[in-house]
Design a protein that fits this description.
- The chain has 309 residues and is α/β, with parallel strands linked by helices.
- Helix content is 39%, strand content 11%.
- It contains 13 helices and 11 strands.
- The chain has a 5-stranded parallel β-sheet with strand order 5-3-1-8-9, with helices on both faces.
- The longest helix has 14 residues.
- About 8% of the residues have low confidence.
- Its cofactor is Mg(2+).
- It holds the Pfam family UBA_6.
- GO terms for molecular function: hydrolase activity; mRNA binding; RNA endonuclease activity; zinc ion binding.
């Protein structure tokens, strides 16, 4: 009998010490109502209610919202430095410079524009790869504009020259695209280029997936570096999420009920009704418990108890 009463009041949320103390005062044969009155007289509250009082009240959100978290939040907020959430940037220097020079001149100013754009966004890891022979004086068949920018970027540890040399008067150039893809893949970063690197995609299946998912194309509009707002298409991530290691959750969108005031689903309707501004994203049973003041945890315990064979 003692154990049955102890289990019963424990399910209501009262502590074992309080229950035993009351049973000692009233006797083991005391009625459950008398024990409950004595617990209430002692000023004891069920532990579930005490913990619930410490927590903030339940937030009521409109039905049809896709998320209960308001506003935009990072999925994880471990680091206070926002630059840690941004992906490393690896720029195909030759591709960017020739694009800015209309494929006629190797325009180093285009590289500077791209670097400045990512700097303003807060990216700390930016690398630009350019063949070593671009340090040579410009020739008529390969003109270079603003060559001093390459020296400045090299001093800032942003620009990296890929190896090249001359053998019997002929220039031997290492494949700079391989450097670009390899470094971006190892750093889990983003490749900035209008080249598709199809030969490297066929060479390595892991690189193929990486190039398809992490290639950021761009355009120059009046000396303005402009990447697209949807790098992977209309149904893909935004530019901000594409350049971030931890994407941002979208704002909750309310979906109005197509039936409007003629809706007959009542509280079971999952859509938003403007005439019912205080709809809660709770089940009907939980809403009824909230109205009569029964804790949600106790209601769930009762449901589990009724489901047991």
């Amino acid at each position: 009998v003692h154990q049955n009463k102890l289990d019963f009041f424990c399910k209501l949320g009262y502590g074992k010490q309080d229950i035993c103390k009351v049973l000692e005062n009233l006797g083991q044969e005391a009625l459950e109502d008398d024990v409950l009155k004595e617990l209430i007289r002692m000023g004891r509250k069920p532990q579930a209610l005490e913990s619930q009082a410490q927590l903030s009240s339940l937030k009521l959100v409109a039905r049809g919202s896709c998320s209960t978290s308001p506003g935009l939040k990072w999925l994880e907020e471990d680091d206070s430095d926002p630059s840690n959430h941004l992906r490393p940037i690896v720029i195909d220097g030759s591709n960017v410079a020739m694009s800015h020079g209309n494929k006629e001149v190797f325009s180093c100013w285009g590289i500077q524009l791209a670097v400045d754009w990512f700097r303003e966004r807060g990216h700390t890891y930016i690398k630009v790869f350019v063949p070593l022979w671009r340090k040579e004086p410009p020739r008529q068949d390969s003109p270079i504009a603003d060559q001093h920018i390459l020296e400045e970027l090299e001093k800032q540890s942003i620009l990296v020259y890929t190896p090249s040399r001359k053998v019997k008067g002929k220039r031997v150039v290492c494949y700079d695209d391989r450097y670009i893809v390899k470094v971006a893949y190892e750093k889990d970063g983003v490749i900035v280029s209008n080249d598709h690197y199809r030969d490297l995609q066929n060479e390595n299946p892991e690189w193929k997936w990486f190039i398809e998912q992490r290639l950021l194309m761009y355009s120059f509009v009046s000396n303005r570096f402009m990447p697209p707002d949807d790098p992977l298409g209309r149904h893909g991530p935004t530019l901000s999420n594409f350049l971030s290691k931890k994407p941002v959750l979208p704002e909750p969108k309310w979906q109005p009920c197509p039936y409007g005031k003629k809706c007959t689903y009542g509280n079971k309707c999952k859509f938003y009704h403007p005439e019912k501004p205080h709809q809660a994203q709770l089940s009907v049973a939980d809403e009824l418990r909230a109205k009569i003041g029964v804790p949600l945890s106790l209601g769930k315990e009762a449901e589990k108890h009724n489901c047991l064979p």
